[in-house]
Amino acid sequence: MTEHVINIASEFSRHPAGRYKTDGEFSGEVCRKKILVPALKRPERVIIELDGTRGYGSSFLEEAFGGLVREESFSETDLKNKIVFRSADPSLPEEIWGYVADAQSEQPKR
Questions:
Q1: CA 39/CA 58 separation, integer angstroms
Q2: Taking the model in full, what pTM does it have?
Q3: DSSP H helices in 18-73
């Protein structure tokens, strides 16, 4: 499988913050809609480079990544098969996958 690399710091913002679009132009909702969803609709594996920002707030991460399940109808399995995170901080991908798992557990059973 070919790869599509997204560097959050250079392609979105070095200062990602907030949950909703109303919180600012670099919120989790904006990142999800403008960067993540289009990349995930491509056939390639998506490599997400998390380093280079000034940090991530939990509301940003939950909305950007948990929102993929809650708002965009991706499943946790779909995302785990498609996304690879790269980060010098191993706890960051773990935190993100936790938000994805939480959002999945809140979905109605089909």
A1: 22
A2: 0.95
A3: 28-31, 37-40, 58-61, 67-70
